[in-house]
Amino acid sequence: MPSLVAVIVGSRSDLEVVQKAADILQKLGVGHELRVISAHRAPDLLDSYVTDAVKRGVKVFICAAGLAAHLPGVVASKTTLPVIGLPMPGQLAGGLDALLSIVQMPKGVPVATVGVGQAENAALLAAQMLGLSDASIARAVEGHRAEARSQVERDPTNEPTPEPART
Fold this sequence. Notes:
5-stranded parallel sheet
């Protein structure tokens, strides 16, 4: 299965969170690849990876970063494909610093951003984007939503409340 989503994480320490995105993509049948590449420590490797990923058929990037969180913006500056920023929880305000860094991209270099640590949402957003032109991915996303809805509806706390007896 060709990789349609490239998941890039800036630090190996964030792999546990990012693995949740890979798991969702796998469940939805979306080809993906995962790399650990720091925008600061390996800029040439990042540049060649983004260029090569586009040539291989990647359609969406998910970039996870914490602290200064430059990775999503750097990737967005190197491609016109969609980039989803995944701010990582961190020591400063629970990841708020990373969230603000990713959300505040300069005009002309957009990065879609999900909540701090919300790797599942990053994967679902990537799949929704791909589903615009791939009916099988769109159906897989719809199935995932239906399953989530069903779990909530089946929760015992959602049983109808009996009417009080009238006297």
